[in-house]
Each structure stands twice: as structure tokens, then as C-alpha cells.
UniProtKB/TrEMBL annotation:
Organism classification: Bacteria, Pseudomonadati, Pseudomonadota, Betaproteobacteria, Burkholderiales
Alphabetical list of PROSITE patterns matching this protein: HTH_LYSR (PS50931)
GO MF annotations in UniProt: DNA binding; DNA-binding transcription factor activity
A Pfam family recorded for this sequence: LysR_substrate
Family named by the database record: Belongs to the LysR transcriptional regulatory family.
Record-annotated membrane-spanning stretches: none
Protein known as: LysR family transcriptional regulator
Organism: Duganella radicis
Annotated HTH lysR-type domain residues: 9-66
CDD domains according to UniProt: PBP2_DntR_NahR_LinR_like
Amino acid sequence: MNSIHNGELDLNLLPVFDALIRVRNVSRAAHELNMSQSAVSHALKRLRLFFGDPLFLKTGSGMQPTPRALELLDPVLSVMGTVRGELLVREGFDATVAQRTFSLCLTDMGELIFLPRLISKLRQAAPHCTLRTLQVPVHQIQGVLESGEADLALGSLHSVPEGLFQQQLFMRSFVTIVNRRNRKVGDSLTAEQFFDMEHIVVSLSGRREDSYDSVIDHVAGPRRVYLTTPHFLTVPIIIEENPELIATVPRELATKFASYKSIKMVDTPVKVPSFAIRQHWHPRVQHDAANIWLRRQVKEAFDTVPE
């Protein structure tokens, strides 16, 4: 073991470390690297022998890196970033034969809005690639992108972490959803009703000030908030059972919620500015051929979305 540990590291093992630190799963890493699971397991065994550390431990949520693996993260990602960004960029990315998993940071709202259109496009353009989504608190997004665990973050970030690249995809506006059984609300909602009724707001952090529609409180004054939740998709179900509650959500999401027979959309009776939906990525993949290709697919998928 000492002779292996003191010998030269086989650089062919670094892509295995890179894949495992990102996808946290041996079978997914093998698929991405176009290797067998046994070959990835063998490479991991050699990495463990060389560094004298387990590096990754099996848990219920996947292969979790040890403190030693986290120490190795930056230098390994730096080497892999150089290989991808400077040595292999000329080779481009052949989506027709590539086998890898693209990982996206998305909220449940993002999955509903982005995934159907994106899946349709990627299944045709990259038939052997797959997708994985992660729901990550805003303050952790930079670290997830930097580590390579995610390729892109899609959505509306109130405060974009410093150092990330971003590209606007389209603009969206807010509307309010109410229960059709609420006899106090007709085809429109007055400002007086809006501020008198109790609201549901969505905040990934659980703090009201971080809610997606917090701009309303800033431009029009505080509302009566009854429920703060991290989940968009539970909102129409809650309003269906509680007709006295209302919520203000992005228009595209409200359109989907209107499929509930008890839910209807009305214009938000206060002037609320539109907001931008963007894709974000880390500088280390700015010149990565696969990431460049993925960003282009995302941009093209939503270029035709009406304002």
C-alpha cells in the first residue's frame, strides 16, 4: 500500500473522481464516463489506495465525500477544468454520441416550467444523455455549481451569487390565484381585497423576506401572510381546501394551476414589475464544450417563449 501511495498518481483516475464528486453514484458515473460499473469501482479502489482514504462513503442519499475528498476537490476540478476548457474544447461536444448526465438546479416551479420543453429538445439532440434535477437553497448554489454537482442553475434568483455567469432567457409577470368558491371575489380583485385577504408565499429559505413575490411588499406595502412554504406545487391544493387564502405566482405557473377546477387567475391589483428568468453557471465551465452546448440548448428552447 505504501508503494502505491508514494508512487505517481495515474491521471486517468481523475475523471472518475470528478464524476463521483458530481453525481455521487457509481452507476451514473459509469454511464457518464462510458465505463462499466466494475471499472469505476476498480478505479475508486485505486484512488482510495493512493490517497489512503475511503474518499466516498455509501449513505442513503448517495456516495458522500469524506473530508479528504473535499480537500482534493479544488485541485482535481482545476485539472479537469483545464483539460476540458483548454485541451478538449477544440474537439467540441458531440451530443449525438455523448453519454452523460446533465444536472440542473431547479425549484419545483422550475421543473414544471422548464423540464417538459427542455426534455423534448434534449431527447432529440442528445439521445444518450440523461437529466438530473436538484433543489438547492440560494446560498448553496454557487458551491454546487463550483463543485460540478450541477451544470446550470435555472430560474429567478433574487441575489445572484458573486462570480457566476448568467444569461437572461425570458421575462415573466405575476398574477394572483383565488378559489372560485370565494364569493367575495369576482372576475377581478381590488387592492382593498388584496391587502385584506390572507396570502400564501413561497420561500425556499423559509423566510418571508426571501419569498419569490417579496417585491410586492417592497413596492406596495406588507400583506397579511398566513402561510410561508418552500413548495409551489402545494399552493393550489391548499387554496382549493381553504377558499379564504390567495397567492401571487408567475403567470405561466398560474395557467397550469387553473387546471384545478376550483382555481382561477385574476390580475394582481397592484403594479408589480416583471422579473427575469435566467440560466447561471460557474466560470470554471465557461469554456467547457459540453456546458456551452447545454447552455445553447436551454437558450434556444426558450427563445420563442412569449413575454
